[in-house]
Here is the input.
Amino acid sequence: MLKAEYKLVENDDVMVVLTDVTDEIRQEDKVRSERQRLEMVAAVTESRDFFDTVKDFRSFTLFDLPAILQSVVDAQVIVKTIYREIHTFKGLLNQFALFRPGHALNFLRNIFEVGRTQVPGTEQPGLFIGPSIKVAFVSRDHGIASNLNRALARTC
Here is the structure.
């Protein structure tokens, strides 16, 4: 990565100074990553809440989410329920500086934000909860739920 500086020199000429700042940016990234890791360690060691949150999150992704998606309640209720759970877990995981699953949950929350609104002129939610989205969430090996658990495991 290059940083450009411009300097006015004699005769109204402009001198361009290019500086390679790649190493500085890498160092800043390392420091930021280490700080986040230390924040996580500090948050984890301060209370038992961390382990309860991880257990609850895994339970949600492995059991509750598939059950919600397989339920026969109104699609709008499904969307609102999943949105609320995702929003809650995103906040809880961010408290423990677990940003990797938090970013994934933020992405999902945005999808379900669309689903919370209705299609104009209909009673239908903006997100269709059909068989394909259910498979995308609950597929044991490649589903979103298992990917969230893997993101949590890599962070911890």
